[in-house]
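Go through this chain for my students:
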Amino acid sequence: MYNIEKKLTDEQKQQYLMEYRQKQERTFRTGKIIVAVLAITNVIVGVANFIVMPFSFFSIVVLILEIIFSIALYCGVAWVRYLFVIVSAYQAFVSFMSIFELNSYGGVSAEWYLLFTAILVYNIAFVILLFVNRSVSEFLYGQRNG
């Protein structure tokens, strides 16, 4: 490795360093966009649930918590990331089981199947993006460690 570094000119080293930094900046920007979209989507879903659910103290608390956790996720709070992954995985499981449960009832409309399938896909995408995506990891690491 030392011999390879010795053979590189200062200009080549600068070029490699600049390419590396540009790649890191793209990765960080992509992660920032993904996390922002996930956080905003979570707030939108929370508002939709608030509108659909009967007005109660519980629905207000849930909406406020979803907004706070979405902001904390964007700020890079590590445990919130794992909380979102666990909750989304659980919701995906419940949606998957609900699809099979609908089969036991006769005459269920296709809209219900479509709704639970959409919820399932959304939650699986949420888990994959938050837990597996390298850009998201880079962004959250940068947010957390400044």
User: Anything to note?
Assistant: The helical segments are 2-7, 10-52, 57-75, 78-104, 110-131, 134-145.
